[in-house]
Structures are given as structure tokens and as C-alpha cells.
Amino acid sequence: GIVLVAINPYEQLPIYEQDVIYAYSGQNMGDMDPHIFAVAEEAYKQMARDEKNQSIIVSGESGAGKTVSAKYAMRFFATVGGSASETNIEAKVLASSPIMEAIGNAKTTRNDNSSRFGKYIQIGFDKRYHIIGANMRTYLLEKSRVVFQAEDERNYHIFYQLCASASLPEFKDLGLSK
Question: What residues does ATP bind to (predicted)?
Fold first, then answer.
């Protein structure tokens, strides 16, 4: 399959704006510069042409920008599928896991708020290839980090938040004494 190597610039760049989405929409792979939108367009076209499910695997080290790349792909699908303004699918999908984000994020030597789990995001399309829904289906917590952490790293944020809240009256209701 297609492989795209992307680097997280740690800042907003104009290469992910609406006009760039429209520039890549309908193009063939290789006609334009390598881009997450080119990969998303190829998957979208193959889904429509072959009527088969498509997958985009986003992989990389901590802080590489995997979540950001997934957001851009979802934004592309929402825009070309005609549902960007109707559903704001990108925001809805990513907002659907605040509890997992609180439990599954930690401080690493490369990233102060690094996700410690894998996400499988499934986006559903109707027969006109418009987005009709999405969900996150699988979480792969790094269990090894519960009992071990590297020097200068911080374990899951939730542990520190719970310890800092132990004196609050609401804490008693959680049933987490001693």
C-alpha cells in the first residue's frame, strides 16, 4: 500500500486548510505532493469505486503527531463527503473519549500529554459516501507503564489528579480510601 512519512511541526501550518482539502479532492495519487489529504483521497476514492472498506494506519513514536494526522484525515472525509458543516465529525469523534484521555495520557520525555493507548476509529458512510457516524472501538493501554516508568516520565495523569483531590469532599464518594 501507500506509505506517507509525516513530521509533526508542533505548530499550525497553512497546508491543512480548507482550500488544500479541495485541491487534493479528486486528484490521483502522485499528481500532487505527498500529503495526508492525498492518502485520505485515495482511500475515499477506492471506497467509492470498489465499494470496499478502507483502512488508514497512522503509526509513530510518542509526539509524532498521530492524533493530529487522524484529525486531518477525518476533516478531509467530512469535507469531501459533504458533511463537514452538518456534523463536525472530527470534533465529535475526538470528544467522545474524554474519560479515556484522562486515564490514558501521561508525561513522557518527549511529550507532556502523550496518549498511552491506540485508537481504532471507525467512520461510517452512507450510499452517497457521506459520513453518517463514527466511533472509537478499541483501546490498547500500555499496561507496562502502570508498574514502571522511565526516568523523567510521569505515570498516567489520572493517578496524580486523584492524589491531589484526596482531601476534597467529593473524593469520599469515589470509594477510594487508602
Answer: 60-67
Q: Which residues pair with 107 in a beta bridge?
A: 154
- Residue 146: which domain range? 85-177
- Report the binding-site residues: 60-67
**Among 30, 49, 81, residue at a domain's last position:** 81
What pTM did the predictor assign?
0.74
Q: Does 74 share its domain with 89?
A: no
- Residue 134 phi/psi, 5-degree rounding, is -160, 155
The string of pLDDT tens digits covering residues 105-128 is 778 887 777 777 777 888 888 898
Q: Do 33 and 75 fall within a single domain?
A: yes
Which grid coordinates belong to 42?
Answer: 485515495
Measured CA to CA, the distance from residue 13 to residue 36 in angstroms comes to 13
